[in-house]
């Protein structure tokens, strides 16, 4: 932790105060208005300290993160963690967007390398990767700490950011992932949000691995909207496995014929499962909080938090 | 060496359709050594074009020849100059450097290529596979990455890898079939007790060094 650095954002204030902190996530998709973004933000505000806004996730041609980050802060009062990837912009464009983000009041940036375009819906796209998550983190530090660009030129009224990074508890092997986090800590990353885990064991193992790393870490959770999604995650997302017991329960519920009943029971199962997972994470690990990604059913986040008894 | 691959015959036949006197030119450098565009492949291609055109009822004069290295202007000039009478097409079987050298030396004759070029790599004879190992960036990192080039062998050319797309040492690009270059680098440096080189932060690269076109003075 870096209490010597001032906290400019509510997220950083909460983390520095040692409060168990929740963040949510908003994914602007292939949309031409802010309606869905605002709807999601309204469901999260007051329940999470801040919400990540994704930046063309998995290389699907979606809306960017900058506009929606601004809008949710401005219109809903929900603090944004603006995700920025290095896939689509070189160092000039990233710098330009960072200045715009600062000028628009964005305080938290999640510095990501970004998925390769070949994974998305437009695999023909030319990948950029002029910077990577480490060098983007360095750039954000330079802007914030020195008020300078990469070439040491002064910025007039430089913005102040908090820079977060991602980590993957499911990385196999785990050692390069930890070494990478050490590298990012040395560069000045201020918070970590992890990829998704489904069991307390995964959370404990990862937190044990990074005991020596003094950056507040939020464990990533992703409630499962349906059995189909849970099965898909288990079968097709490498390194992600929904535990058998949960999968079986979800499968049982998926056979309920009446749709509203099926939906409600699946929803409740999620609330119970992830609520108690949050509780366990808080009780048994050094995690600074949880990052709950419930895209398209953000209303569940407040229920999970309530179930966990954290607040 | 440079990895060339012959274009599909159908495409070559279409490309050469309008010419009457074709000289197919093999290269005894990389292309010849890899048996993609040596003298034998030049002879075969010449025969195929001749046969195809005969079948189409449009007979054509096709000869073949070999240049020791098509990337050498002087060799190209001395080898080919005596063979050019009536030639209306130079069809190169060298990498992309070959046809451009032909254009430089013989600006008045049409030049086409019969191959696609895939950068610099190595070969596994048993598998018959070629691996791209070098993109000629001009600022070699190999001395600090365990002799494995992340600029070429990582699809993102990351200086501070691996990214989150590495699983079990494999890369997210290509459905986890290819090795993650940064995983290989990690393994090598770990075995050498040099993980300090792994965790070291590498600042963004100076891409001016790789800026095309480059002219190198030795």
Write up what this structure looks like.
The complex is a heterodimer of chains A (311) and B (218). Chain A is α/β, with parallel strands linked by helices and 311 residues long. Chain A has one domain: TIM Barrel (Alpha-Beta Barrel), CATH 3.20.20. Chain A is 43% helix and 14% strand. Chain A has helices at residues 10-16, 35-44, 66-76, 91-103, 133-146, 175-187, 200-209, 227-236, 244-254, 259-284, 299-308, and strands at 21-26, 50-53, 79-85, 108-112, 162-167, 191-196, 217-221, 289-292. In chain A, strands 1-2-3-4-5-6-7-8 form an eight-stranded parallel beta barrel, surrounded by six helices. In chain A, α2 (35-44) packs across α3 (66-76), α8 packs antiparallel against α9 and α10 (259-284) crosses α11. The radius of gyration of chain A is 19 Å and the shape is globular. Chain B folds into two domains: 2-118, Response regulator (Rossmann fold, 3-Layer(aba) Sandwich), CATH 3.40.50.2300; 140-209, no CATH class. In chain B, 30% of the residues lie in helices and 22% in strands. Chain B has eight helices and nine strands. In chain B, the strands form three sheets. Chain B has a four-stranded parallel β-sheet with strand order 3-2-4-5, sandwiched between helices. A three-stranded antiparallel β-sheet of chain B has the order 1-6-7. In chain B, β4, α5 (97-105) and β5 (110-113) form a beta-alpha-beta unit. The two termini of chain B are 19 Å apart. Chains A and B meet through α5 and α6 of A and β8, α7 and α8 of B.
Which structural class is indicated by helix and strand composition of chain B? alpha/beta
Number of domains of chain A: 1
Q: What's the CATH topology label of the largest domain in chain B? A: Rossmann fold
Q: How many separate helices of chain A?
A: 11
Runs of chain A in which pLDDT lies below 50 for 5 or more consecutive residues are none
* Biggest interface, residues from each chain: A-B, 32 and 32 residues
What is the global morphology of chain A?
globular
The pLDDT mean of chain A sits at 96
| C-alpha end-to-end distance of chain A | 23 Å
CATH topology of chain A: TIM Barrel
How much β-strand is present in the residues of chain B?
15-25%
Rg over CA atoms of chain A:
19 Å
* Main sheet strand line-up of chain A: 1-2-3-4-5-6-7-8
- The CATH class of the largest domain in chain B is identified as Alpha Beta
Class of chain A in CATH? Alpha Beta
CATH superfamily of the largest domain in chain B: Response regulator
CATH architecture label of the largest domain in chain B: 3-Layer(aba) Sandwich
The number of distinct structural domains of chain B comes to 2
Strand fraction of chain A equals 5-15%
**Number of DSSP strands of chain A?**
8
